[in-house]
# Entry
Amino acid sequence: MIFNCFVAAFILYFTAGSGTTAYDGYNDFVEEDNAPQLDYKDPQWCHSPGLTNGEVTCHSPRGAAYRSTLGTRCEMSCDRGYRLLGKSSIHCLANRRWSGTAYCRKMRCHVLHLIPHGSYTCSQGFMVDSRCDFTCDTGYRIEGEHSRTCQRSSSWSGTQPICDDTDPPKIKCPPSRLKVAEPGKLTAMVTWDLPAATDTADKSLNVILVGQEPGTDFKEGANIIRYKVYDQARNKAACKFIVRVEVRRCPDLPPPLHGYLTCSSDGSNYGATCEYHCDGGYERRGASSRVCQFNRSWAGAPAECVAMEIKSDVKTVSALLDQFHEKRRLLIMSAPNISDPDYQLQNIMIQKSDCGLDLRHVTVIELLGSPPRETGRIKESLLSSEVIEGLRQVFRISRFYFSMLLLDELGLDRERFITPMASDELFSYIDSFLLDEEQRERLELHRDFCD
# Structure
C-alpha cells in the first residue's frame, strides 16, 4: 500500500511537468496507460548531445557507456577561436530533454585601422590567431610593432605602428663656375639654373637658398652658394658650389715725376682708365690717359710732366693768358711803384708763400709803376708794354694804388684785395672757393711738403 502511494505521487509530479492535466485532490486522478516510465537503465534517455566547433564531455552516474542516460551531466567547451554561447553545463532531465543548449561562435577582433603611408596583410582576416604584418610605403620606415595578432580575448596584441619618413630628400647643385669681371668693373653677373630636389615620400619640397641670388653681381673672389631642402618630416639634404669671379689686372701704373694719376674703378683692373696730371708749374707731355686692356697690359705709352715754359715775349694779353688756361690760376699784383709800403709788405709775404702758391697752381704777375717806366714781370721774365696795358684794361687794374686780383683757371675775376693779404687768409680763400674736392684731397696729401 505504501509503495502504491509513492508511485501515484511521482506520476502526478511527472505529468504536471509534461503538460498533462493535474487535479486538486490527491486521490482524484486518472492514470493514463501511455504515461512515461522512468528507466535509469536506458542509455539513450536523452538524445546524444553534440556541439559544432566544440567538445562535449559527459559524466553519467552509470558509467562512461551511459553518456545520455537520465541524470547524465555534460560540460560544454569550444574549440580555440570560438566562444561558447549558452549553458556551459547541462544535464539530462526526466522529460528526455537536456537542461539547456549551447553553441560555439567564431571569435574575431575589430577591424584594424589603416596606417598613413603604409598597409597590412593578415593570415586569417580578423579571426583569432590571425597575424597581421605591417609594411610602409617606399621612403618610410615602421616605428613600433611590425605585426599584431588577434588574441582569444578578441583584442589585438601590441599597439598600432606608424610609418615614419626617415629617407632624406636628394638635391644636386649646378657645377661651380668661373667668370671674368666686365670691363671697368670689379664684379660679374652670374646666373644658373635652380637645383632640382626629389624625395621618395613627398612631392612638394621647400628648397632654400643660402647665399647670393642668381642673376646678380658677384664680387671678386670665391663666393660659396648653398642650397638646402627639407621634406615634411624635416629630413634635410644640402649641396653647395662656388661662383668665382676673376678680375683681370694690369701691373700697377707708376705716377709721373712731378705729377699724379687719377684712375677709374680699382685703378689696375681690366677696363680701368688712368689720367695723367702734373703738379703746379709742370705740364703734361704725352697721352692724357691709358686704359688697362684684357691682355693685362696698358694701352699707349706713359706721359711725363715737364717744367712749364711761360713765354713772356708775346705781344697780346690773350696770347699770355692762353698759356695759363685750365692749367694755372693768376694772382696779379699792382702798385704805383716799387717803394710802395703795401707792395713791399705783400711782396715779402708772397716770397714766403711761394711753395704754397705752387701747390695751388697759382702764378704771380707783378705790374709796377707808370709809363714810361712801367714794368711787368713773371718772376724774372719781363712782359711787353702791350701786354701790361692789355692786362690793366681787361681787368680794370689802376696804377694809382695798391691792389691784387685773383683769377681762376678759366681766367675769371674771382676776388680783389686792396690791402696786403697774409698767406693763411689768401690760401683759405683759394682752398674754399677755387679748389674742387679732388684738388683739396691732393692738397691735403702734399700739405707737409712746404713745411
